[in-house]
UniProtKB/TrEMBL annotation:
Keywords: DNA-binding, Transcription, Transcription regulation. SUPFAM superfamilies: Homeodomain-like, Tetracyclin repressor-like, C-terminal domain. This is AcrR family transcriptional regulator. GO terms for molecular function: DNA binding. InterPro entries: Homeodomain-like_sf, HTH_TetR, MT1864/Rv1816-like_C, Tet_transcr_reg_TetR-rel_C_sf. Coiled coil: none annotated.
Amino acid sequence: MKRETYRHGNLRQALLEAGIELAREGGPDAVVLREATRRAGVVPNAAYRHFADRNALVHAVSLAAMAELARTMEAEQADRLARRAAGDANAAEEARARFRAVGTGYLRFARTEPGLFRAAFFVPGDMVEAELPVSAGEGGLTPFQLLGAALDELVACGLMPAGRRPGAEFLAWSSVHGLAVLLIDGPLRGLAPEQAEDATELLIDMIERGL
């Protein structure tokens, strides 16, 4: 039976969505143009109108995965703030909640979406990649920018000395990312969910005390 080709809608978006699903199932190595075109229902050559090669598709998937990470972090912040609101939290408590949610959301995404998490950090690049609008969440901030904003709030509320602010995002990010990698690809991947949650909170406690 002859396969029908894709004749409507946004082909680039369809290919990107197929790539995202492939990454979700098997990480960046699973993102293959031929399989993406098969899932989108088009002939293989159709992909080259939108993606020059496999690397271009993986790059786009990486940026989309980064945006999904940002949305997970935003949802974690909203959840923590909602819980705080019940207790009439003050500005300082809300700033702490937002900061901690950046870390817990980051690690939750790594554990629940390991394929997308690996894809988000697969494409080689520099800090420009961490600040592109296409990598942002609903609020317009990328994961790196969400961290920076949370740190700025800690300073504004007097919870963090201004002298410690420069470069703090790199140290906090490195620590949380290191635990994420250990939990999904390293010797901590066998931890029970509750143990992973405990490790997450303890790490963020340590980072917060250090800041």
